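Quick one: structure tokens for this chain, please?
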Amino acid sequence: MSFFAELRRRNVFRVVVAYIIVSWLLLQVADTLVPALHLPEWFNSGIALLLILGFPIAIIFAWAFEMTPEGVKREREVDRSQSITSQTGQKLNLTIIVLLAVGIVYFATDKFLLQDSRPSVDEIVQTSVTPSIAVLPFVNMSDDASNEFFADGITEELLNLLAKIPELDVTSRSSAFAFKVRISISRTSQRNSMLNIYWKAVFANQA
């Protein structure tokens, strides 16, 4: 009997196929559980390493041992006339078919059903991040009190111009001028959830 024929008789090829399918399914399950259970990132790598190390062990076990009605025995201890490797092979065939069916169902569900319901990165960015801006009142840092109206006018003009941009969320005038007396950039940002805050001051040239 040739070497490949002996491998087939001992169901080594079937064990290899079943092991590969089971390993793939375990990796898919682990990939789903890691983010769900907040497991460390090395968890998937550890599972993959264990499966790789177990692959040659499974091949050696399939070659050296055989399933019998009395349990697992070394292959050389089993009489060929009483060997049930053909029955074991049929069971492995059924197991492989079931595993393939589970794998196909999982792949189809993840690829066609769940993929369509998952938002893309662009959709997440567009729905979760809205460009927004707050224009704080311009501060009159000159000695001339009349420049106060000039500073307020610049602030209102900027607010009006920015409000014309439909893609931009601009803080209202009342919210912006609420901090005119005592400006606190960190407080304004926290209160209005602004991504960008522009603060300016007005200086008047003294003659």
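The chain has two domains: 3-118, 128-202.
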